[in-house]
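Deliverable D4.2, example record:
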Amino acid sequence: MQTQINQTTLDLIQGDITQQETDAIVNAANSSLLGGGGVDGAIHRAAGPGLLAECSQLGGCRAGDAKITKGYNLKAKYVIHGVGPVYNSKDPNIPKLLASVYQRNLEIATEHQLESIAFPAISTGVYGYPMQEAAEISLKTVIDFLQQNTQIKLVRFVLFTAEALNVFEDTLARLI
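Output generated by the structure prediction step:
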């Protein structure tokens, strides 16, 4: 599914984020930035040892924030490591942290004059964020950013499963 927000194409696909030929891919990182499971582990494996070496110099990253590195062996030139929150339905700050990590990734992409970025569904794996809630927050944050900023020409959400893609497509259809 694809739509236009100002001068930016917003694209939803099912696939492998490590194979994206965008200027940057987003890593759903943990706070150490030193690799882990899921998307994080896949990106570290595909990028090679240079990514871990660079990440080890960054001093970690707090939830809701992001840091950029080179892409090394990936097709993408850069990896922006976004640390999403661990889901807790009783903590009112959790949705704000999820929105913040998407916002920070887009800000960093803009600061580095990147024109294309690919996102996974941050925090929906081992961090337990319900897919429907995460889709709503992430898409709304991205749309709001794109309505105010025109530098980025392509924002792609790369969803790992058909179920995740369906949730994101249904949510996007409601938001536009």
